[in-house]
Design goal:
Shape: flat
Helix content: 55-70%
Largest sheet: 2 strands, parallel
CATH class of the largest domain: Mainly Alpha
Structural class: mainly alpha
Distance between the termini: 75 Å
Strand content: 5-15%
Number of domains: 2
Length: 202
């Protein structure tokens, strides 16, 4: 009978939701920070960000008892840092929860309301910009890299750069475009930060 039950999972540690903001003095922030006060709890959360796992798997990863792992998982789940992403079964047919990080990244914010709003807008704008950049980079990759380009242009470019036939190929155009876009975004952020710091307040 146990052979008919799923013993693996498709749960993912990817976080696809919008970032959630927490005020330092907010009602829910105390519970969130309390759930992370233990080194073991933080190790469990980092482990789940790498790969979803059951309580027993978590206990083995962070070298703690199963009872302690369940205790921290419950606290992390109540604080909104962890969720039950799936259910699977042991070889003996025992049902087990598969834990993963919350679907939304969490940010604890210290500052006034105006700065919080500005920061959240900037964060959402940055996430959107990186997403758009990734999609455009994919389109660039599909448009530029054809069979003809791979067989004709890249080898000739590589030969000219190394002087040896069959030398290493250049980086994929989509990856180069994406890296360049990230560099531009980074420079813009640094410039905006420098402007805020250098502009005297009235």
């Amino acid at each position: 009978m146990s052979g008919l039950l799923p013993t693996s999972t498709d749960a993912s540690s990817e976080q696809e939701g919008d970032p959630r903001m927490f005020w330092l003095d907010g009602e829910d922030t105390g519970e969130l920070l309390s759930s992370l006060s233990s080194d073991t709890a933080r190790a469990i959360l980092m482990s789940l960000h790498e790969d979803p796992a059951t309580a027993s798997e978590v206990a083995g990863r962070v070298d703690t008892s199963l009872q302690n792992a369940r205790h921290h998982l419950t606290n992390l789940q109540e604080a909104g840092l962890v969720r039950v992403a799936d259910t699977r079964y042991s070889q003996k047919g025992r049902e087990m929860n598969v834990y993963a990080p919350s679907e939304e990244p969490l940010v604890v914010f210290v500052g006034n309301e105006e700065r919080k709003t500005s920061f959240l807008d900037s964060l959402k704008g940055l996430v959107a910009a990186v997403g758009i950049l990734g999609m455009v980079s994919y389109v660039v990759q599909q448009l530029v890299v054809t069979d003809a380009v791979q067989s004709e242009v890249f080898p000739r470019m590589a030969d000219g750069a190394t002087g040896v036939t069959g030398g290493p190929l250049l980086a994929p155009p989509g990856l180069v475009f994406f890296a360049g876009g990230l560099l531009v975004l980074g420079l813009l952020l640094v410039y905006r930060r420098w402007q805020r710091v250098s502009t005297p307040t009235v």
